[in-house]
Design goal:
Chain lengths: 96, 314
């Protein structure tokens, strides 16, 4: 048999209703954009799960390194002025 | 500071109920166990299309034909969700398929039994999908994120499969004597293999303890099997089917049914490749994989042609 291919992987994002965010649904394999779109449709939206699809070649997804989590997602508890409760409002102030 | 790349830290994350994601540290055996289990699960979905596909052209009505087509398309989709989940662990689709075709990777031995007549399609949907659902509902809470998400998606789709099977059986049990006999015969042939789908007893299950410790499996083989037995026996009785086991007894205290001992010799014989259809299932997969190679080659050639055009217009 000649060289086999399973095509490049693509990540699929589905918007379930207009106005809502696109959510990662999973992955498909395809040789080009057209096939990627068709496969994403057939694989992830057989039961009206979506109104719109994004497909992105998996090689273009860059994920953060879990080892960097402490640095990247530091809760910044020392910066309490980022929260509205930090501020002192004059007595009787309304709608603020 | 804790060491994030230690097994102790990993186990404490698991014990805290955290999910593990693709780039997180995981012990090599956790990764290996998952690749084996998820790919086996994916292969089962794909090979499982064969016994049913055999009946598409012979479905007794347009309604049942449409339903069967939709069900088999779902199984193919489930295989794809699971292959994708396995790929996040660093194994390629080509490798997974190669391992299936060489026999290195297994699939559920239930699919090595033939679907002899239309009643078998009922029994497969009701019993085989029914057993699969019990397992898959439990796996929605598995510790590996991509596997868990695939399971949630699959469970949403799977319940129609079991209901269509039970509907076929119920209809046949309301039919002629011959139809009732066909349904009972299918029940007799599929009951025991369906119970074997949950795997060996916990005491004889080689991979069970690590899988439970790592929360890959949330319930043991025997616990899941018991759930299936307790659900299914009343469903059989409701439509007048007899469970092919003289020793079935409901334990009033526990609410659980007890059954005869399972014929494990048969289970191991089928796993070892000596079931009625092992060779046929793999041969079929390899044949269509090879016959489809030119389509994949053509699609790749098409892609390269268009890539070259794009480069020329820049």
């Amino acid at each position: 048999m000649s060289t086999d291919t399973q095509f490049d992987p693509w990540e699929v994002f589905i918007q379930s209703k207009s106005g809502l965010p696109y959510i990662h649904a999973g992955r498909i394999h395809a040789s080009d954009i057209k096939m990627a779109m068709q496969n994403a449709r057939d694989t992830y939206t057989r039961r009206s799960e979506g109104t719109s699809i994004w497909v992105v070649p998996s090689k273009y997804i860059n994920a953060s390194n879990p080892d960097d989590n402490d640095m990247l997602f530091d809760p910044s508890n020392d910066k309490i002025y980022r929260h509205p409760t930090f501020y002192v409002m004059p007595e009787g102030a309304k709608n603020i | 500071m804790h060491n994030e790349h230690s097994e102790t830290h990993f186990q404490s994350r698991i014990d805290n109920g955290e999910h593990i994601e693709a780039k997180d540290y995981m012990p090599e055996n956790y990764r290996k166990h998952l690749i084996r289990q998820i790919s086996q699960h994916a292969h089962s979905e794909v090979i499982g299309m064969q016994p049913e596909g055999n009946w598409i052209t012979r479905a007794p009505s347009l309604r049942s034909k449409q339903i069967l087509l939709a069900k088999i398309q779902d199984e193919g989709g489930h295989g794809l969700y699971l292959y994708s989940a396995a790929e996040t662990l660093g194994v390629s689709r080509a490798e997974l398929i190669k391992n299936l075709q060489s026999g290195k990777a297994k699939y559920s031995s239930i699919f090595n039994y033939p679907a002899l007549n239309w009643a078998d399609i009922g029994a497969i949907g009701w019993l085989v999908d029914g057993a699969a659902i019990v397992n898959q509902v439990s796996l929605q809470r598995t510790s590996y994120g991509p596997y868990s998400r695939a399971m949630v998606r699959i469970c949403k789709e799977e319940s129609f499969h079991q209901r269509q099977g039970y509907e076929i059986m119920a209809k046949m049990m309301k039919g002629t004597k011959e139809q009732q006999a066909m349904a009972q015969d299918a029940m007799n042939r599929w009951w025991w293999p369906a119970l074997m789908m949950f795997g060996p007893h916990d005491t004889d299950s080689p991979h069970s303890s690590d899988a439970v410790k790592w929360k890959i499996k949330r319930e043991t083989n025997d616990e899941l099997r018991q759930k299936f037995i307790d659900k299914t026996i009343p469903q059989a009785e409701l439509i007048g089917l007899k469970v092919p086991d003289e020793n079935i007894k409901l334990n009033e205290k526990t609410g659980h049914y007890t059954i005869s001992e399972i014929n494990w010799d048969e289970f191991y014989r089928v796993i070892a490749g000596h079931g009625p259809c092992n060779k046929q299932r793999l041969d079929h997969h390899i044949k269509y994989h090879e016959e489809g190679a030119w389509v994949r080659e053509a699609a790749e050639a098409h892609k390269h042609k268009h890539l070259e055009k794009e480069l020329l217009t820049i």
